[in-house]
C-alpha cells in the first residue's frame, strides 16, 4: 500500500521563496574564510512573482500577457511572372513574425530576411485585424527591418507595444521566452534560458547574438525574445540546426535547442537610424582583424584563446593613429570582452562616425590600452596595407602555403564587413579571387593592380567549395 503526501501549494510557495532568500547570502558567506556583511535580499516586485496564489500555480503569465498582443504575424508578398500572363498580382513569398515597438506610429520590427524581395506587406494581429504595412528600411548586416502600419492615425487603432529593456543587463541563466508564429501555427510561446551572450563568428554580419534554448522554428523569424516580465530583450533571427538549414529559419533545419537573437543594444541603434534616414550609416577603424584560435594562440605563445588579432593596419586610419600594430591582440573594446574578430565588428558596426572607442590589447604578452575615434568610410575603393588589401568592404590577403587544395593561385577573402557592397553581393570569407574582369590574379599584388586600375563596376571570378562563381561589385 502506497502513501501519497499532498502539500498546500499556496502555503508552500511563499515559505520556499522566503527560505531561498534567507539562505542565499548565507551560503556564499559560509564558503568564504572571511567574515562578510550579510547583504539584504533583493527586493521583489510582487506584480511579477511567478506564483499565482489565486490559482495555486507557478506562472509568468502576468508579465507576458501585457506583451503578447504586440506580437504580430508578418506576410511578405512579391510579384511573380507567369510564362504567358506576364506580371501577376502580388502573392505571399515568405512570412515570419514581428513585434510592435511604437504603437502611436504603428512601428513593427522584424527580420530583413522576412521582408527581403517583397513589394507589399501585411500585419496580422492577435485580435484578427489585418493591416497593410510599408517598409521604412532594412539592414542586412544585422538582419533587422522596420515596417509601419498604413493608417493616417495609427494611434487611433488601439495597438499594444512591448516594453524594451537594455540587453547589456542580461545574464546567462536568465529565463527567456520566444514568441512568434512557427510552422504555420497561431501565436506560440516557448520558454528557455539565456544559454550564452556575445555570440559571433557565424557569418559575415554585425554579430553579438543572444543564445537561447527556447524552442525557435521556421516562422519565428522576427519575433521577440522576452524576459520573464515580458520585456523585449532581442529579436529572434537564426538557429543552429543539425538539419539542412543550419543558419536561418527558412525551411530546412529544426529546433535543436540553439537559437540566436539580435540584442536590443544593436536592435535599437539600427531601428533608430532606419526610422530617421531609411538606412544605416557605419564608420570604420581601419584595422584588419582575425580571430584568436588555439592554433594562433600557440603561434603567439599565449595562454588564451579569446581575442581579435590585428592582421594589418591601414595607412592613415584611426587604428594607426591609436598606435595599433600588426600582431596586437585586442582583448576588450568599450570594456566589453572580445571573444573573436566578430566581437569587435559588433561594436564598430553600431558606432557612428565620431564615436570614441576604448581598447585594451596585448603586445608581446604585455597589456596596454588606447582609444580611437571611428571615422566615416572614405569613398576610396581600394586601400593597401602591408599584408592585406581592403576594397568594397572586404579584406583580401595572399594564400598561405597549402591553404587551398589543388594549387589554386589567387588572393583569399579574409573577412567581409557587414552591410558592405561585398556583403550585399554575397562575397564570403574563404572565397579565392582568381580573376578581376577577366585578368588573372596570382596574389595580393596583382589583385591590387587590377582593382586600382578599374574605376567602374568590377567583376570578380572566385573559387568557393570547388565551384567557380562570378560576383559583380561597385556597379
Characterise this structure:
16% of the residues lie in helices and 35% in strands. The chain is an alpha+beta fold and 475 residues long. The protein folds into 3 domains: 55-82 and 89-280, Thrombin, subunit H (Beta Barrel), CATH 2.40.10; 283-376, Roll (Pdz3 Domain), CATH 2.30.42; 382-473, PDZ domain (Pdz3 Domain), CATH 2.30.42.10. Strands 25, 26, 27, 28, 29, 30, 31 and 32 form an 8-stranded antiparallel beta sheet that branches. A 6-stranded antiparallel β-barrel has the order 3-6-7-10-9-8. It has a 6-stranded antiparallel beta barrel with strand order 11-12-13-16-15-14. Strand 1 and strand 2 (57-58) form a beta hairpin. It is globular, with a radius of gyration of 26 Å. Residues 1-35 and 244-252 have low confidence and may be disordered.
Question: What keywords describe this structure?
Answer:
alpha+beta, 3 domains, Pdz3 Domain, Thrombin, subunit H, disordered N terminus, 475 residues, 32 strands, 6-stranded antiparallel β-barrel
